[in-house]
Specification:
3 domains, alpha+beta, Porin, 473 residues, eight-stranded antiparallel beta barrel, three-stranded mixed β-sheet
Length: 473
């Protein structure tokens, strides 16, 4: 970290990215549902290898939940705050890396709480963060920090990822300042005081800011990949090597393990390891039998694009798509297309979007689906709108449907919960009779727990007695 024993205190100021969808979808590299926020934190230097910290965060998250094995629902832009206590293990601890390394990686684990501001029923969640990051030191008191963590949710099971980047500011203390008449410290007695010495515990040279050059090749050890061997500057301090002793340096030898003439760039004259008729020195894939027209590389799927340039070497594709297929021709390759046989825009991951008419039909269903009073028996007037929903599900075979029943607050709460579930199931059973597969639907009752209007008034109670139909992937 940026802190030291003399300057133990620091705070962070960072931007953060919140991802509550990846742990549910198990697609950790899809950042479409990443939302943002900010962090400020306090950190304290404990020892050369340990820091303790208290980061405070606020941001917005897309909360995901899995309704069944094929369906994920997302509640967008939910404000969430968190406060953690973390213990950080620094690798620049004098054992793995130098304490004053410019690059300072670390690991951490902790405990903390998330507060979901708009969740009135159960806003608090206890979470365990585990992660890693690194600092890039800009000065003795300032560093850039980049960090990623996985947060394991104990109560709500809202496991999530947090990625962050920002600055660490170490706070100078009175101990950092030497009295005017105090002697200047030089721990390694190399004539360079510690505050100017990049290697204060190793005898070094002033032209290398107090760091040594053990092999005397004019390259300081901290920049020398071979500090015990005299080497060349353009080779990061390492000597010229020639493993096969053919007089051609390994860096210029295309066959460094087999001696050969310079005319063949160090390869044997007739070398053809994969026996494809293309000499190794001209073979772009010397260990795989290939075709002459592709410089010795194979074309497994025979789509006219060699495997070394084909992102889908086992699937016939086009060069415009880097060798990958696009079955539905919507401009999104099958690898990235959630609906590879039905054209759709990138905004819906290649799946077709519902028309405005279909969206209006789903909205109308909330008020149009009606039941016998106090029962789960559908009125005949409901059949036409349910038939429209069956038509929507038929036209969009890639989508699933969640059916949610709701009641007003009149009567017993337990009875209302049971009635809402039965009414949702009545709609579910009707759609099955219309040919919609049960595996594409689920139903659930919420009773009186989610009103959309005031139950004090008759009009409000009428709105709250409803069944909602939600289309999802």
């Amino acid at each position: 970290m940026a802190q030291t024993t003399e300057n133990p205190n620091a705070f962070t100021l960072k931007g953060i990215g919140l991802d509550y969808v990846a742990p549910v979808s198990e697609d950790y590299f899809d950042y479409n549902n990443l939302n943002y926020g900010g962090e400020i934190g306090y950190f304290r230097h404990i020892s050369k290898g340990l820091n303790i910290g208290f980061p405070l965060r606020y941001g917005f998250a897309n909360i995901a939940s899995k309704n069944n094995i094929d369906s994920i629902s997302i509640l967008s832009d939910q404000p969430v705050a968190s406060l953690d206590a973390v213990l950080m293990a620094k690798l620049n601890n004098g054992i793995w890396m130098k304490e004053n390394s410019i690059l300072a990686p670390y690991l951490f684990v902790g405990a903390g709480g998330n507060y979901f501001i708009e969740d009135e029923n159960d806003p608090f969640d206890f979470q365990i963060p585990v992660g890693a990051g690194f600092n890039i030191r800009l000065s003795p008191l300032v560093a850039i920090q980049i960090q990623s963590e996985y947060r394991y949710s104990i109560i709500k099971e809202n496991h999530n990822l947090v990625h962050s980047a920002g600055l660490v500011f170490s706070l100078p203390s009175s101990k950092s300042y030497r009295p005017v008449d105090a002697p200047l410290k030089d721990s390694d007695n190399d004539g360079i005081i510690d505050k100017d010495d990049r290697c204060p515990n190793e005898v070094g040279l002033s032209r290398f800011y107090g760091c040594p050059d053990k092999d005397g090749d004019g390259i300081p050890d901290y920049e020398d990949d071979c500090p015990d061997e005299v080497g060349e500057k353009d080779r990061n301090g390492c000597p010229i090597r020639d493993k096969d002793e053919d007089g051609i340096p390994d860096s210029e030898d295309k066959c460094p393990s087999r001696p050969g003439p310079a005319s063949n760039r160090g390869c044997p004259t007739i070398a053809d390891a994969d026996k494809d008729g293309v000499a190794d020195e001209k073979d772009m894939c010397p260990d795989l039998p290939g075709l002459m027209r592709f410089s010795g590389c194979p074309d497994t799927d025979a789509d006219g694009l060699p495997d070394n340039k084909d992102q889908c070497p086992n699937l016939v594709g086009t060069s415009a798509n880097n060798g990958c297929p696009d079955t539905d021709g919507d401009g999104i390759t099958d690898l990235n297309d959630r609906c590879p046989t039905s054209p759709g825009p990138a905004s819906s991951n290649g799946c077709p979007e519902l028309t405005e008419e279909d969206k209006q039909a789903l909205e109308l269903a909330k008020s149009a689906v009606a039941f016998e009073s106090g029962k789960a028996v559908l009125k005949e007037s409901s059949f036409s709108i349910l038939d429209k929903i069956a038509g929507i599900m038929t036209r969009y075979p890639e989508y699933n449907l969640s059916i949610e029943g709701h009641t007003d607050s009149v009567g017993d709460e337990t009875a209302n919960q049971l009635l809402s579930t039965k009414r949702a199931k009545s709609c579910y059973d009707y759609l099955i009779k219309k040919g919609i597969q049960a595996s594409r639907m689920d139903y659930k009752g919420f009773g009186e727990s989610k009103p959309i209007a005031d139950n004090k008034f008759k009009a409000g109670r009428s709105q709250n007695r409803r069944v909602e139909f939600k289309i999802n992937m």
